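Running this now, will post back.
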Amino acid sequence: MSCSIRLKKLTAAVFAGLVFATQTAPVHALAADNPSGMKPDEVERFCANIADAARDRRYALQAMELEKLKTEVDERVAALEQKRADYEAWLKRRNIFLAQAESGIVEIYSSMRPDAAAERLAEVRVELAAAILMKLEPRTAGIILNEMNSKSAATLTTIIASAARPEDPS
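Update: finished.
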């Protein structure tokens, strides 16, 4: 086998882990496993000569890996920022819609007959019914509550009173 081929194989072996092994294993142990047939002192000299290059290569590989990871993190941060902006835009559109819908619903219930409004409010979620009653004029809300059965009216009154508290009871 020619010298250059042996040197290439030995260099490949060094970069594949022989240099790392020299940091923990004695040279004579490496000489026994030496595939190139080089003498232990030649292996020592070779390893000493390329130790700086191997360390520099290892640092370069680590720097490239860190740069790759930094790029991935930056891409993920950009994607998250885009999703946050999309969510904020959606939330703004939703709040505008809800504000318009709320005023429309309040107008609808304020124009209904009190007995019909009481019957309809008894069928919707209690939180929604309480929110609608809170937005109605107090006189209209009182008439509607008067038309409801006492249990539903009491539940809605409790929710409205809790929402009106300035402090959180918990």
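The CA atoms of residues 41 and 118 lie 99 Å apart. More later if anyone needs it.
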